[in-house]
Amino acid sequence: MRYSSCYIPTLRESPSDAEVISHKLLLRAGMMRRLTSGIYIYLPLGLKILDKISAIVREEMNAAAFQELLMPMVQPADLWKETGRWEYYGQELLRFKDRNEREYCLGPTHEEVITDMVRGEVRSYRQLPIRLYQIQTKFRDEIRPRFGLMRGREFIMKDAYSFDADAAGAESSYKKMFKAYMRIFRRLGLKFRAVEADSGSIGGNFSHEFMVVADTGEDTIAFCHSCDYAANVERAEAVWRGETVQGDCLPCEKTGMPGARTVADVAALLNVPPAKIIKTLIFVVDNTPVAVLVRGDREANEIKLKNLLDAKVIHLAGPDIVKKVTNASCGFAGPVGLNLPIYADLELQGATDYITGANEADSHNTHVDLRRDVRVAAFADLRAITAEDICPRCGGKIAFTKGIEVGHVFMLGLKYSEAMHATFLDENGSERLMIMGCYGIGVSRIAAAAIEQNHDRYGIVFPPPLAPFECVLINLDQHNAVVTDTAEDIYSLLRSMGIDVLYDDRDERPGVKFKDADLLGAPMQLVLGNKGLARGVVECKDRRSGERCELVIENLRENFSLWARQVREHWEALYARQ
Amino acid sequence: MRYSSCYIPTLRESPSDAEVISHKLLLRAGMMRRLTSGIYIYLPLGLKILDKISAIVREEMNAAAFQELLMPMVQPADLWKETGRWEYYGQELLRFKDRNEREYCLGPTHEEVITDMVRGEVRSYRQLPIRLYQIQTKFRDEIRPRFGLMRGREFIMKDAYSFDADAAGAESSYKKMFKAYMRIFRRLGLKFRAVEADSGSIGGNFSHEFMVVADTGEDTIAFCHSCDYAANVERAEAVWRGETVQGDCLPCEKTGMPGARTVADVAALLNVPPAKIIKTLIFVVDNTPVAVLVRGDREANEIKLKNLLDAKVIHLAGPDIVKKVTNASCGFAGPVGLNLPIYADLELQGATDYITGANEADSHNTHVDLRRDVRVAAFADLRAITAEDICPRCGGKIAFTKGIEVGHVFMLGLKYSEAMHATFLDENGSERLMIMGCYGIGVSRIAAAAIEQNHDRYGIVFPPPLAPFECVLINLDQHNAVVTDTAEDIYSLLRSMGIDVLYDDRDERPGVKFKDADLLGAPMQLVLGNKGLARGVVECKDRRSGERCELVIENLRENFSLWARQVREHWEALYARQ
To answer: What is the distance in angstroms between the Cα of A6 and the nearest Cα belonging to chain B?
Structure first.
């Protein structure tokens, strides 16, 4: 492409409302524009990146024998009522009525639609498995759209669905997708991790997330230094090592501690470690308050509680509810005498001689023995994993990293087929439920994640597989006919070699051209000017390393191929190190 | 592709709610499914057709130096309020609110969005022209969605927009698109006509529609037998041949004619031709009633009236309004003494001795002279063209045909740039408005229109450029190892030749395979069975003509190439005849 005929409106300054680097750079590089909160226009260069991502996704989905279809963005409410998600999905589901007052939503995902279609087609086990996918525009009415393409409201997803007759088939579908995702993210040239994950509002039996590793990620990944274990902290098991405190303690005693509201306050006042204090948290679970106990130096994990209770909606109780159920303001709740279902973290099994709130203003109980003084409904893993924990698989050391979720595979099991009665007749003529899986990739989010992971102070440093151009050819002396003739020859040569090249033929100063080339992030730059041409060379720059060298023009086909291979090998070494 | 691993759920019977042949066949051929009123799922084969159409559209748009981008489906109300279309677009514009009570719509078109973007980018004439397009999903909340993909609510369009600095540039953009559209529809292998058209709710100075010729089309095209003239009847000029009746007539006289409500009633009663009667129609134009006069044997053309008065909203008055403004029920309105703006068709210039309604129940006026008895606000072309009319270009004979609108190019002029203040600084530093054009192609509608034009009693007969497969290879004896080995060899051979082939390897009866092959509409069929193989031949069938012949397997590469060329040439001859 010739730069002069491309619509690439680069900006010198970052718009003030751009918060993260990918958002800033996508705007500055003329790849997208904001239409309104969380809704963006993909300009030609941005669309080109999405097309490169989609092409790789398509190839791997087709290779895994999933077939592409296209479902609508507007979905009827009736189907969402069948699964109950019309009620439970939350306000991210944008609901509206048409001119005839019929209810619809903008699809944030398509389980209902595809299950409805498949149940209408399938009669016999002979028609299974069915494995389908689409690349389509989704809408989620985020409460706080932010970070550009990272958490927009309208975005592009690849979503795939599998319908199998039995568990072995469903597992095979899941594994096919897991492997396809590994290939997709490797081919995209991203540093990523596949991690165990919670299934969230999609539901199902188990799931894996694919995380692009980046400091700016919203998710935290716990991983083991010794084995392959990696999980989203939302889900990572905190292993109970079986220590229980032995022996009795003094009777429970209420003690006034005016103003000592936090674990830190109480620990300081009594000069005890936070680990000797029990934190009591009140959650509202499907409209019912429950209490959760964790050690004072731990954080409760809301998602583990939600899964334990198989709940639909869960949130921390507000001050009014805390006051109502504990008779005290926040900070003084405690399990002794509390008339609520009480769930305690595994670590508190056999806990004795602990300090807790006393359900009274400015008071805490000391010498609390959970076995003696409290009726615990269940002990379970209810806390967040920490750096002190061990790997649940091998006992190795746990570390943490930040990630951006770009893919998620779910073993749905019977959740949707049961709710929507998606059945088939098996070999014996008995009616059975199909076993489902679903598999998402955030196509537009990948573009942002790739930039979060690959940029420097000058702009984007695209991994070659998703760069909008492989190479930028800069003509420094546009008005010099000899230079321009040679540049045109080089442009033709590169195109004849199948290189996706942007030829900067604009009537602009060299500084502008250098800046734009760095900003746009093509992995390779060729720079031709009067001086170089006099010596018969074109300068080249590896965008990532910044390393420069000169290529003799006379034998450019071979010289360029050699250099391009080096640049690609450096990138491949980078991917391989992950 | 192997049929056994393709998701192609064909149906023996047409679903009862399918009204037109394209709708029936798309469902029966397993190419799409209905999700809800006017909203469809494109199954893999349907999507493949859309992809083939899109690929041709993209190639020609890129060749015309328009660049692809992608705009959102959800659009903020503010922009539509700027142009006034929030108020005037009608209920097809699906409006809704997000969780924060902000107003949005689902985009039925993108003039507002792209004008907003471009006005934010362009400062100088040096940045123009800007020529962009997208292929994107649109939504129009049709009052009565019908005919499957022909008039759905959610559909796929290619929409393009041009921004130029001056009239010459805008004309060049328009011509580029007109030519690109001619190439696109020719390459798609469709019989079509480019016709002069009304600009409708998009607005602008002039426009052309591209119509696929088909008996089932909702539009009527008037065209000239002698020259290139063709126009939508909504727009086609009815030429006034300048005849005026000379001389005076008797004084106007009110005559009782009980029950004579229609032109036919009055003509029969008085034994005069309908051409001697004036029809008076009451329209409500932007909330104001006006009267329109046409000859009794003519039809008024509402769109011509709308354009004459530069109106936003227009409709025929209901009985209440007719009663109120004429003092009589429908059928007795007349221009004499009528206190409304009166617009008369050109043909009525100098009309004398006519019969009209008398604005009184069961009464008509005779001997009406328009010059003498009526104050006409304006004479204009306000009637529909008829077979008696002459070509407005060359005076030749006019004929009519039915068409399906699949493309529309609009010279928008300043409509949007004025409303949204989309300006630039010209060479002299003066601020000027950009001149716009917009250009649409109904991608999903093309699939339906192609079928309306190309089908027979057995199924679809796809033009080769948009067939989901070029060739179906039918294995008649799936369980015979020798036949199957040879079929596999032929399948490999065809693929190696770059033929897009569907290999029917299913364990089904020959009758099922023949029926499905005819239904799916691939232009070529190869049939291999035990008997043919014994003689060393494969049978082939041209799907369109039904002609069969045999190809010797031994030299199949050459034999198939030869036959395929024949089949293609027959199709090309068909296109060329249009």
So the answer is: 8
In whole angstroms, how far apart are CA A428 and each of A3, A124, A170, A417, B19? 65, 10, 20, 20, 39
Which residues of chain B are under the pLDDT cut of 50? none
Give tens-digit pLDDT for A381-400: 999 999 999 999 899 999 99
Residue B355's closest CA among B247, B254, B238, B429?
Answer: B254
For B255, the token pair is 């005559």
Percentage helix, strand, coil for chain A under 3-state DSSP, each rounded to 5: 35, 30, 35
- Is the Cβ pair B117, A153 closer than 8 Å? no
Eight-class DSSP state of A560: H
| A18 vs A157: CA distance, rounded Å | 23
- Interface contact B113-A35, CB threshold 8 A: yes
Residue for token pair 């944030």: A108
Within chain A, what is the greatest distance between any pair of CA atoms?
Answer: 96
Cβ atoms of residues B419 and B412 within 8 Å: no
Nearest to B36 among A69, A76, A99 (CB): A76
Does B76 contact A116 at a Cβ distance shorter than 8 Å?
no
| Cβ partners under 8 Å of residue B427, min gap 6 | B125
Closest by Cα among A305, A303, A362, A309 to A334 = A362
pLDDT reported for residue A178: 96
How far is CA A413 from its chain centroid?
22
Give the residue from A98, A105, A139 with the most B CB atoms within 10 Å of its CB, the best one to mutate. A98
Query: How close is the nearest chain B Cα to the Cα of A91, in Å?
Result: 7
Among B43, B101, B161, the strongest candidate for a mutation testing the A interface, having the largest count of A CBs within 10 A, is: B43
Q: Give B109→chain A minimum CA distance, Å.
A: 14
pLDDT of residue B577: 63
Q: Is residue A246 classed exposed, middle or buried when 0-12, 13-18 and 19+ CB atoms within 10 A define those classes?
A: exposed
Which of A28, A31, A39, A66 to substitute to test the interface with B, most B CBs within 10 Å? A39
State the smallest CA–CA distance between residue B142 and chain A in angstroms: 9
Q: Which residues in chain A touch residue B75, judged by CB atoms under 8 angstroms apart?
A: 35
Alpha helices in A349-431 (DSSP H): 370-373, 415-419
Alpha carbon of A556: minimum distance to chain B alpha carbons (Å): 29
Q: Read off the pLDDT of residues A278-312 as tens digits, 9 standing for 90 and up.
A: 999 999 999 999 999 999 999 999 999 999 999 98
| CB contacts, 8 Å: A137 with chain B | 72-73, 137
Give the chain B residue nearest A4 (alpha carbons): B127
B70, B75, B80, B155, best to mutate vs chain A, most A CBs in 10 Å:
B70
DSSP codes of every residue in A272-292: --GGGBEEEEEEEETTEEEEE
- Cβ-in-10-Å burial (0-12, 13-18, 19+) of B79 comes to buried
Nearest chain B residue (CA) to A79: B35
| Chain B contact set for A141 (CB, 8 A) | 98-99
The answer to whether A522 and A502 are in contact (CB under 8 A) is yes
Q: Tell me the one-letter amino acid at B270.
A: L
Stated pTM of the model:
0.92
Tell me the domains of chain B and their CATH numbers: 3-237+399-452 (3.30.930.10), 253-380 (3.90.960.10), 469-576 (3.40.50.800)
Q: pLDDT tens across A119-132, in order?
A: 999 999 999 999 99
**ipTM of this predicted complex?**
0.92
Q: For residue B578, what pLDDT is reported?
A: 58
Residue B570, H or E segment:
helix B556-576
DSSP line for B149-190: GGB-SEEEEEEEEEEESSHHHHHHHHHHHHHHHHHHHHHTT-
The helix (run of H) or strand (run of E) holding residue B514 is helix B510-520
Interval A260-273: pLDDT, tens: 889 999 999 999 99
